[in-house]
Write a structure and sequence with these properties.
Amino acid/polyamine transporter I, mainly alpha, about 450 residues
């Protein structure tokens, strides 16, 4: 932590508003290790402990995606992450589609993070079971984090480093001490509770667990705000994914063996409940505090990115110009505000007293839209790799494996979600026409 703080102060003196390796790795790991780890055990309990294998498969797929994004950050060193890469490979229309889907994925995913945060706040404030009060506070938190990011990207990076370090406290508590309370019977009796085949349960579990790795591309999006991007973006991406994979597999296995699936399935604060079993009431409170910090940090990191993609597209004439408006500190302030308004509307429209159900809807929307951007990016890499590259065949194989994984994850989603995703794809056609006509 002292090293991270020293690095931030040093960068402030040398290159103001630049993100270094430490803060960039914190951005990647912090964006992934957020609500994904702290509420997903309850969601995965509806599938069964077979999802342990889903975690492993998803970690391998995410690592392939990380390698793709690391390579693409060197080939196309521009702001926008997936949008910039896909536009370079496929042109304006598919580039617009990617920016459109990915922008939606970010702000809907941010709503999922806020929902998880409210679940852990209920440990301290049970009255948050009131839907109206809970929604009001959730929206207020959105605008608090938006204000932090309006101050500047470096301030957001500092917040990200601190919250990422603090969030490991509750995870380590459960991941280390929880094994003492592990019950093999709980783990085996709920191996597959979906009533479908093991393959179907495994595949659907892999789609859900991907939520834990959404953010693998985080370091590539604010490329112009990164110090030494050629070195730091690939390294931060691989480090962040490796950290997340280890944390997820260890802690999820422990918590799913600590309590019956019937108890876990509707628990809105599973890590706090596990800590209560280990240390009693004080353990529950400490872990709940850590979980709240974690969700807040993930929300901060994603808010940092939620205006970067439409800003990059607007700079290229593929998004409304209002998203390209910046402050004197190069912050896309109007894009941040518009996106936060969309989040507020979403929370009002989909409010639900059952936070686990509300969380499920939002993460499935965010995952499916992200997967389209990931799929396009993996194919774009195959197109953009220089013919004379010494490792072209290796990168092609990695890109194809990542593309197969992304397609499989889309295919494994619920039919209703795939239907909505298809309708969203169709809406991009008239929207693209409108934007290009104005441009």
């Amino acid at each position: 932590m002292l090293f991270c703080i020293f690095e931030i102060k040093l960068k402030m003196k040398k290159k103001k508003n630049k993100l270094g390796l430490c803060s960039l790795t914190a951005l990647v790991a912090g964006n992934m290790i957020g609500s994904g780890i702290f509420l997903l055990p309850s969601q995965l309990a509806r599938v069964g402990s077979i999802t342990l294998f889903s975690w492993i498969a998803t970690a391998l797929g995410a690592f392939c995606l990380a390698l793709v994004f690391s390579r693409m950050s060197l080939l196309i060193p521009k702001n926008g992450g997936p949008y910039a890469y896909v536009r370079a490979g496929f042109g304006d229309f598919i580039g617009f589609q990617t920016a459109y889907y990915y922008w939606i994925a970010i702000w809907v995913g941010n709503c999922s993070i806020v929902i998880a945060l409210m679940g852990y706040l209920r440990v301290f404030f049970p009255e948050l079971g009131n839907v109206a009060l809970e929604t009001t506070i959730a929206i207020a938190i959105i605008w608090l984090v938006t204000s932090i990011n309006i101050v500047g990207i470096h301030m957001a990076g500092m917040v990200q480093v601190i919250t990422t370090l603090l969030k490991f406290i509750p995870i380590l508590i459960v991941g280390i001490f929880g094994w003492k309370y592990f019950n093999t019977h709980y783990f085996m009796e709920s191996f597959n509770v979906t009533g479908q085949s093991n393959l179907s349960a495994f595949s659907y579990g892999a789609t859900l667990t991907l939520w834990g790795f959404i953010g693998v591309e985080s370091a590539t999006i604010p490329a112009s705000s990164v110090d030494n991007p050629g070195r730091n973006i690939p390294l931060a991406t691989l480090l962040g994914v490796s950290i997340a994979a280890l944390v997820y597999i260890a802690s999820s296995s422990a918590i799913m063996g600590m309590m019956p699936a019937g108890l876990l399935v509707n628990n809105v604060s599973p890590f706090a409940a596990a800590a209560k079993m280990i240390f009693g009431h004080w353990g529950e409170l400490i872990v709940a505090i850590g979980a709240c910090i974690s969700c807040f940090g993930a929300l901060n990191g994603w808010t940092l990115m939620q205006a970067q993609v439409p800003m990059a597209a607007a700079d290229d004439g593929l998004f409304p110009k209002i998203f390209a408006k910046r402050t004197k500190h190069d912050i896309p302030i109007l894009g941040l505000i518009i996106t936060s308004v969309c989040m507020s509307i979403f929370l009002l429209a989909f409010r639900n007293p059952n936070l686990v159900n509300q969380f499920e809807v939002s993460i499935e929307i965010a995952i499916s839209t992200s997967l389209v951007a990931y799929l396009y990016t993996t194919i774009a890499q195959v197109i953009l790799l220089p013919p004379e590259s010494n490792k072209r065949n290796i990168y092609n194989v990695i890109g194809i494996l990542a593309a197969i994984y992304a397609f499989w994850a889309i295919f494994s989603s619920r039919q209703q979600i795939v239907f909505y995703l298809t309708m969203l794809i169709f809406t991009s056609i008239p929207l693209y026409t409108l934007v290009r006509k104005k441009a």
